[in-house]
Amino acid sequence: MGPKKEHYSTRYPDVNLKVYTISESLRRHLYIFKTTTGVFSYRKIDLGTQVFVEHMEIPSEPSVLLDLGCGYGPIGMVLGYNSRESDIYFIDKNRRAIWCVKENIKINLPNARDRMHVRAGDYFEALKDQSVRFDGIYMNPPLREGRDEFLRVFNEVPKYLNEKGFFEFVIRKKMGAPYIQKYFQNEFPNDQIDVMVKRSGYWVFHCFHGFG
Ligand SMILES: C[S@@+](CC[C@H](N)C(=O)[O-])C[C@H]1O[C@@H](n2cnc3c(N)ncnc32)[C@H](O)[C@@H]1O
């Protein structure tokens, strides 16, 4: 029998636990990440994530930012390192991912722990006891099981953005980036969606607040 198929989008992945340490230079800074089996792209940073972090907009002023579906946390870690006075929220439903993020904050941002907020749970449900609103929401969405779940989240995003907030995400062209762009243009005709970059088959999107 071959190895079990991994389901990284589950609360408690049903695969043997093995811890890895990987390193990656992102926006000219070297990060060390602890990862585990059962977590998205645990052997090497995902190419889509890499393209995304190199091009995402990072506010220089103090902001409240969210890494939605954070996995072991590469997006939020880059935000936390480069936006030195911002609060960074990390959300994931996968408990192993949550363990990794907490470890990775200790390793990569040891002096910024009070600005880092890690929440386990189902997307915005994880914030249900808080009235926090974000200046930027960032996402590399899981599209393996289809687009419906992402479109559900997409429609909820405006409720969690500040007035001038934005939503940025990355999608592989083959996984439906042109479809998502058309969907947005049809559903929110008065609002703006820009493709910031197309690189290595990935499209990085930037949407302005007000698209709800
Ligand atoms: C494509 S991965 C991206 C992970 C990480 N941001 C990165 O770039 O390496 C998507 C992540 O979304 C998480 N996820 C899937 N469904 C979720 C849900 N309903 N609520 C919260 N997180 C979810 C998965 O566990 C996974 O870590």
Q: What descriptors fit this protein?
A:
two-stranded antiparallel ribbon; Rossmann fold; alpha/beta; 212 residues; binds S-adenosylmethionine
Please provide a written account of the structure:
Strand 6, helix 4 (148-156) and strand 7 form a beta-alpha-beta unit. The protein is built from five helices and nine strands, in the order E-E-H-E-H-E-H-E-E-H-E-H-E-E. Helices cover 25% and strands 30% of the residues. It is of the alpha/beta class and 212 residues long. The strands form two sheets. A seven-stranded mixed β-sheet has the order 5-4-3-6-7-9-8, with helices on both faces. The chain has a two-stranded antiparallel ribbon with strand order 1-2. The protein has a single domain (19-208), classed as 3-Layer(aba) Sandwich (Rossmann fold), CATH 3.40.50. S-adenosylmethionine is lined by residues 8-9, 40-41, 46, 49, 69-71, 74-75, 91-94, 97, 122-123, 140, 142.
Mind sketching the topology for me?
Blueprint: E1 19-26, E2 29-36, H1 47-55, E3 64-68, H2 74-82, E4 87-92, H3 95-108, E5 116-120, E6 134-139, H4 148-156, E7 161-172, H5 177-187, E8 193-199, E9 202-208
Parallel strand pairs: 3-4, 3-6, 4-5, 6-7
Antiparallel strand pairs: 1-2, 7-9, 8-9
The site of S-adenosylmethionine has 20 residues, from helix 2 and strand 4.
**CATH architecture grouping:** 3-Layer(aba) Sandwich
Q: What gross morphology would you assign?
A: globular
Helix content: 10-25%
* Tally of DSSP helical segments: 5
The biggest beta sheet is recorded as: 7 strands, mixed
User: Oligomeric state of the chains?
Assistant: single chain
Number of domains: 1
Give me the side-by-side strand order of the main sheet: 5-4-3-6-7-9-8
What is the strand tally? 9
Q: How far from one another are the termini?
A: 48 Å
Portion of residues in beta strands equals 25-35%
CATH topology: Rossmann fold
**CATH class assignment:** Alpha Beta
Q: What is the mean predicted local confidence, pLDDT?
A: 93
Q: What's the order of the H and E elements? A: EEHEHEHEEHEHEE
Low-confidence stretches: none
Q: Roughly how many Å is the radius of gyration?
A: 16 Å
